[in-house]
Amino acid sequence: MKVLVTGAAGFIGYYMTKALVEANHEVVGIDNLNDYYDISLKTDRLRQMGVQSESFEYGEVQNSIKYSGYRFLRLDITDEDAVNKLFEK
């Protein structure tokens, strides 16, 4: 099954993403990585998922080196154009 997880770098999103990829689902995680709380907590969770980016550029697909079925994008769910492009792919 293909699954989109919003808020994938947050507390709940991280655990949901991890459970899904470990159950062999294909997961695309998105998060805008805002500074509502310490962003290093979010980037640490992404690194634990195998996303080893230096810069998390907006809209850039990051493939996990730990889970072959996981990809991450820094993306704001309210960005209608970017979300539409994601679904087109």
Structure, explained:
The chain is α/β, with parallel strands linked by helices. The protein has one domain: NAD(P)-binding Rossmann-like Domain (Rossmann fold), CATH 3.40.50. It has 3 helices and 4 strands; from the N terminus they run βαβαββα. It has helices at about 10-20, 40-50, 80-89, and strands at about 1-5, 25-30, 60-65, 70-75. Strands 1-2-4-3 form a 4-stranded mixed β-sheet, with helices on one face. Strand 3 and strand 4 form a beta hairpin. The longest helix has 12 residues, at about 10-20.
Task: Give me the secondary-structure topology.
Elements (H helix, E strand, L loop, with lengths): L1 E5 L4 H12 L3 E6 L7 H10 L12 E3 L6 E5 L5 H9 L1
Task: Provide key terms for this protein.
89 residues, Rossmann fold, four-stranded mixed sheet
